[in-house]
Amino acid sequence: MRIGEIAALIGLTPRAVRHYHRIGLLAEPARRPNGYRSYSVRDAVLLARIRRLTELGLGLDEVRKVLAGDAGRPLGDVLRELDADLARQEREIGERRLRLAQLMEAPLTGVGPVSPALAELLAAGPVTDSPTAARDREHLALLDTAGGGGSEVYGVLRKLAGDPAVLALYEELDALDGAPPDDPRVAPLAARMAALVPDEVLAAVPAEGPAVTGFGAALLADYPPAQAEVVRRVMVALTERMRGRAR
């Protein structure tokens, strides 16, 4: 048989057969005087076995070990390991589908997918085209992924989401875009922002936060200078309040 014939017989492509030759999985057959490969029934039997093993989910390296016979692992051991791996994948797929179902049931947001609790918080927020508000939503989605948030935190923050004062603060922050960090509007705005955060929000915030060195500096660097100074002052003020509560 020629390569096209044996490939059609086994249900493969000639390209796949040539690949098996290149990686040493299938030995090169004898060639005819005209240079064409000449495959035997034995080659077809081996190629059929390769196909069956790969369809079971074995990688080509595992197939090579099985074909090696006594030099490799017993087929039974390989298949039991494969079965255990498939069971693990089934569990993971089930968990992912459950997570997907929760996301589909939650309100959809522009920064999704996020956790259902955060999706509800974002949906409860004011409708605004504020660039600072958009950046805050992105930061919340980042913390949600990094494990720095939590349903308790989001639940408490929902009480602030509908506060008209929050939207006004976003507008003031937007107005600082392009201003220097020593702008006289920075200090009073930071004080009002910190005062707006109730103690119950601080009590719900995880003490450890995102376990990434330099996260705070990177967060501030995402803001223009004056806005970054406002956020830095707010972070300092809230940290001092948290420490005071801990005493």
TrEMBL record:
CDD domains: HTH_MerR-like. Residues 79-106 form a coiled coil. Transmembrane segments: none annotated. It comes from the Bacteria. The keyword DNA-binding applies. This is MerR family transcriptional regulator. PANTHER family: HTH MERR-TYPE DOMAIN-CONTAINING PROTEIN, REDOX-CYCLING DRUG-SENSING TRANSCRIPTIONAL ACTIVATOR SOXR. Keywords: Coiled coil, DNA-binding. Signal peptide: none annotated. It comes from Streptomyces poriferorum.
